[in-house]
Amino acid sequence: MAMASKTMRAVQYDKYGGGAAGLKHVEVPIPSPKKDEVLLKLEAASINPVDWKIQKGMLRPFLPPKFPFIPVADVAGEVIELGSAVSNFKVGDKVVAMLNFQNGGGLAEYAVAPLTLMVARPPEVGPAEGAGLPAAAITALQALKAAGIKFDNSANRPPSNILITAASGGVGRYAVQLAKLAGVHITATCGARNVDLVKSLGADEVLDYKTPEGAALKSPTGKKFDAVIHCATGIPWSTFEPNLSANGKVVDITPTMKSMVTSFIKKLTMSKKRLVPLLLVPKGEELKFVVDLAKEGKLKTVIDSRHPLSAAEAAWAKSMDGHATGKIIVEMQSDS
Ligand SMILES: NC(=O)c1ccc[n+]([C@@H]2O[C@H](COP(=O)([O-])OP(=O)(O)OC[C@H]3O[C@@H](n4cnc5c(N)ncnc54)[C@H](OP(=O)(O)O)[C@@H]3O)[C@@H](O)[C@H]2O)c1
User: Fold this and answer.
1) Transmembrane stretches, by residue range (predicted)?
2) With a 6 A CB cut-off, is 148 part of the ligand 1 pocket?
3) Which of 82, 99, 300, 326: CA 20 to 30 A from 139?
């Protein structure tokens, strides 16, 4: 199917900064897949904080590679055109994909997706639920693995007690469910309005981060943490340190220059307590792992809100506000 001459609706920005007001609705040519890519008619996309951080210029000069830029990488869609080297998917397949961060492209009716980060979407997983998974669930999985949790029961001495901060967010909610599947005792932090929800996902004890105990990260039952999956921001090492077990490790998915220095010093001084910065490295087999768990009903995507593509700026603003409960979804077909 030759789509090159046709156009599609998309949402893009043409400079750094500007937030939701910097997004513009445009009509642009439908992209063409390279030989190892497919063209997707998008059903849903999910916004991650990294998307607006790129717009803010936090990853310049690498991302975005040029302007204008159609943001967002996590999508679900239907395959409508195959690159010349694609043999393992066919037109009509429903998939979950993570688009190449260099290309972006998720806030649009169509996008090209790389084969390496695309898996079939089973009927048990809806488009919005599927689109919620890639970056957030794989980050949660990689953070738990970095904490020493194995998902094949092969760990020698897996952590017994872990703390997950910002457990109500996109990453935190998947982290709680994955840690529960691994059989770990979970302490979690979130705001008061989400305590019951986070418990229902599998947290054993939950702290409201706005209380003194929550701010101090003190386990209500006095547990010391073998690992912390740190998904919040602005918590110094001095708050973590007294709550860690002798070999406790903080896996920090929101590292700052200060935490990088702390991490380096802990390594240099051969401290048993460690701070490990983590940057997502997307892997196709891990995308399959989380989609399979979702299919089996073991990993739920909690949806904060759904927005049509025509109101993508509302979704963007919601993510920038920092108070999402789960994933913020843009649905392509809901206003066509
Ligand atoms: N390193 C990587 O590769 C990587 C990958 C993915 C994400 N990240 C980063 O990880 C962070 C989390 O991502 P996300 O998608 O989960 O974000 P998110 O969905 O926007 O997180 C929002 C949630 O965090 C809660 N929260 C905020 N501050 C908190 C605190 N101090 N203690 C407890 N809960 C708090 C909020 O609760 P209230 O509404 O009650 O305040 C809200 O429910 C972001 O900074 C993101 O950029 C990094």
Assistant:
1) none
2) no
3) 82
User: Which architecture characterizes domain 137-277 according to CATH?
Assistant: 3-Layer(aba) Sandwich (3.40)
Instruction: Report the chain's C-alpha Rg in angstroms.
Output: 20
Map out the domains of the chain as residue ranges: 7-132+301-335, 137-277
Mean pLDDT of 249-260: 95
Predicted pLDDT of residue 158: 77
**For residue 6, which of 81, 82, 97, 113 has the smallest C-alpha distance?**
81
C-beta 254 within 6 A of ligand 1:
yes
For residue 3, report the distance from its CA to the centre of ligand 1, in Å: 38
* CATH no., domain 7-132+301-335: 3.90.180.10
From 59, 253, 276, 318, give the residue whose CB has the most ligand 1 atoms within 8 Å, as the site to mutate. 253
108-142 residue pLDDT tens? 999 999 999 999 999 999 999 999 999 999 999 99
* Strands 110-114 vs 37-47: parallel, antiparallel or unpaired: antiparallel
Cβ(325) – ligand 1 distance below 6 Å: yes
Cα 155 to averaged position of ligand 1 atoms, centre (Å): 28
Q: How far is CA 107 from the centre of its chain?
A: 16
Nearest to 280 by CA among 305, 311, 251, 315: 251
